[in-house]
Amino acid sequence: MQTTWKGTISFGLVSIPVHLYSATQEHDVPLHQVHAKDGGRVRMKRYCEREEKEVPYAEIAKGYESPDGRTVTLSDEDLADLPLPSKKIIDVLAFVDEGEIDPLMFSKAYYVGVADKAAAKPYALLRDALTESGQIAVTKIALRTRESPAVLRVHDNTLVLQTCIWPDEVRPVAGIAPEEGVTVRPQELKMARSLMDTLSEDFDLAQLHDDYQQALQQVITARLEGVEIPHEEEPGEAPDNVIDLMEALRSSLKRAKGGRGADDGAEEEKPAPRKRSPAKKAAASEAPEAAPAKTSAKTSAKSSAKSSAGSSAAKSPAAKKTTTRKSTAPRKAS
């Protein structure tokens, strides 16, 4: 692996000689510019406007044009001799929780390797301290013609230097998100979480691949072999306006589950219409007949009252007298 940078990590009074190696590589299909008419290669020529002729790359330098039109020429030696403390030193400034650095600021990643055997122990010390604390180290580094903030973190038991952009290079986000006042119902949020959980089941990031590069390679191969270019069916147009968010979530959940038991989760979120219980329904159907029954009850109560009154009359003094007379009659001798 080719070395990108050589220098030293400064960790307090501890110095760790290190090399940086590019941690990523692109796998794009190499394309170049050609003349569409005949396929001839189109090349960029370095042309000097003053001398009106092409110049070799060895004579190319960098320049800066001031607002008043003056030009300053800077050679590679000028850029190499800039008075920067971070030119060959990765100075550890602080240790912070990883969540304090917005991933929006992250740029290119480099593996950090030791420059010699003497650097192995301090390298391991810094790596293990970062692992145990769960923190990352904030640093600065000058790479090529740019100084950048950077962080040191641990990946697969190896230190990684991740360059960052400066905080003032992050554009403001005001006015991009929807305005406040949008209300999300609890059942919509719960359905969205259910969809998130379903989509995340058995997900393996390592299984992702570049469909665009694969399709491009198929087209190139077809052209080289003189066969028909493969075409994919055009996907259906996505709806430009979601009318029923719950229905869209429900359909998405069903598709994510492959139609297997998707309705179970959907029914939990769908507000069911309020239905009467069988007992209440029966009571409601018998309601018209309740009035006569009530009237009959009143009549029965009145009859009961009259019967009670008759019974009271039977127990009047006259009745008691008759009863007394009967009870005082002499018994026949047996």
Summarize, please.
By secondary structure, the chain is α+β, with helices and mostly antiparallel strands. The protein contains nine helices and eleven strands.
Task: Report what the structure shows.
With 334 residues, the chain is an alpha+beta fold. 34% of the residues lie in helices and 22% in strands. It is built from nine helices and eleven strands. The longest helix has 25 residues.
Using brief descriptors, characterize the structure shown.
334 residues; alpha+beta; two-stranded antiparallel sheet; 9 helices; 34% helix; extended; disordered C terminus
Q: Helix and strand string, N-terminal first?
A: EEEEEEHEEHEEEHHHHHHH
Given helix and strand content, the structural type is alpha+beta
Number of helices: 9
Sequence stretches where pLDDT stays below 50 over 5 or more residues: 260-272, 279-334
Given the C-alpha coordinates, what overall shape results?
A: extended
Main sheet specs: 7 strands, mixed, barrel
Number of strands: 11
